[in-house]
Design a protein that fits this description.
Largest sheet: 5 strands, antiparallel
CATH architecture of the largest domain: Sandwich
Strand order of the largest sheet: 1-9-3-6-10
Strand content: 15-25%
InterPro entries: AraC_lig (IPR032783), AraC_XylS_family_regulators (IPR050204), Homeodomain-like_sf (IPR009057), HTH_AraC (IPR018060), HTH_AraC-typ_CS (IPR018062)
Number of helices: 14
Number of domains: 2
Oligomer: single chain
Organism: Neptunomonas qingdaonensis
Radius of gyration: 23 Å
Helix content: 40-55%
CATH class of the largest domain: Mainly Beta
GO molecular function, one term: sequence-specific DNA binding
Distance between the termini: 45 Å
Order of helices and strands: HEEEEEEEEHHEHEHHHHHHHHHH
Keywords: DNA-binding, Transcription, Transcription regulation
Protein name: AraC-type DNA-binding protein
Number of strands: 10
């Protein structure tokens, strides 16, 4: 059974890694067409709005994948791949295609008006974009992001609402109206969250941070940690909250998350403290106490150990930007 409360922890992590999303375009590609997409530090996605195409993850074994209408594919870690109308079609650099489309020059549009109607009826409509986040953040969620996700429309009828979201996203991208930019960005972020939810519930991996989010006991513990307002929690209290002994809880948490619960708890408190220093006017002693330290001196020493700078410097640097 899925832990339905774990989405608070996921939302908290997404805020911390500063998730942002961008839809590049939604447009028609007439055959023959193809894009060779280089490896990137950003995540990428493609949605087949209409018709079909082929895709190959260059670091994955096996033949190319056939994508049908409604299929969604994503490369959360920016893996290199190609996508085209047929596996044999010539392919242009993906960055050039995006640049040309954004400049109003789709390289795969029909060349003549005479053929435009018939070719458009057989064209593939693609919605493409990217996900950005702070990949330098030392958090297990970032380290455990999957390299590839494929949501097949034919196998996920329960996600009909997601197809509706894609329809709105496609319409707003193709025919922008006042406020479309903000709407498209927010809907694309929702798309990323749903991709993570689907992966959490469908992955066969039973270890890793994303699997931990979906686990009834460890997911609930993560939710408690991320909803903590004051430094009240301990390993014993977390274990008791999810009906596990301290030893059993520590073993299971460490195996799934990749670090002991005490380490994760302290790390997250320090991350929250850093965010409060950078984005709030809270008094230093209040931030110190919420992180579990009874004095500014003890907090300052611990903060410097984590971030190689004293908390005062982090606050001053943030005020300058």
């Amino acid at each position: 059974m899925e832990n339905t409360a774990n989405m608070d922890a996921l939302a908290d992590v997404l805020k911390a890694i500063r998730l942002s999303a961008d839809t590049y375009f939604c447009t028609d590609f007439s055959a023959p067409w193809g894009m060779e997409v280089e490896e990137s530090q950003q995540g990428m996605f493609h949605i087949v709005v209409e018709n079909s195409c082929w895709l190959k993850h260059l670091k994955a074994e096996g033949p190319p994948l056939h994508l049908a209408t409604g299929d969604i594919v994503a490369f959360p870690t920016g893996g290199a791949h190609w996508i085209s109308d047929t596996p044999q079609s010539p392919r242009q650099p993906g960055s050039d295609v995006v640049k040309n489309i954004l400049n109003g020059s789709n390289p795969f549009q029909p060349e003549s008006e005479e053929n435009s109607t018939s070719e458009k009826s057989s064209a593939t409509t693609l919605l493409c974009g990217s996900f950005s986040y702070d990949s330098s953040m030392d958090h297990p969620f970032v380290k455990d992001l999957p390299c590839f996700i494929h949501i097949k429309a034919a196998e996920t009828p329960e996600l009909a609402w997601l197809r509706s979201l894609v329809t709105v996203l496609a319409n707003e991208s193709r025919q922008p109206s006042p406020g479309s930019t903000v709407m498209v960005d927010r809907l694309t972020e929702v798309l990323f969250i749903q991709l993570m939810r689907t992966y959490m519930t469908s992955t066969s991996n039973n270890v890793g941070y994303i699997a931990a989010l979906a686990d009834l006991q460890i997911g609930a513990a993560l939710n408690l940690i991320h909803s903590e307002a004051k430094a009240y929690l301990s390993v014993e209290r977390l274990g008791a909250a999810v009906s596990l002994s301290r030893t059993a809880f520590t073993e299971k948490f460490s195996r799934m998350v990749g670090m002991p619960p005490k380490t994760y708890l302290i790390n997250w408190r320090m991350q929250k403290a850093k965010t409060q220093l950078e984005h709030s006017d809270k008094a230093m002693i209040d931030i110190a106490e919420s992180a579990g330290y009874s004095s500014e001196a003890a907090f300052s020493k611990a903060f410097k150990h984590y971030y190689n700078q004293p908390p005062g410097q982090a606050r001053r640097r943030s005020n300058r930007t």
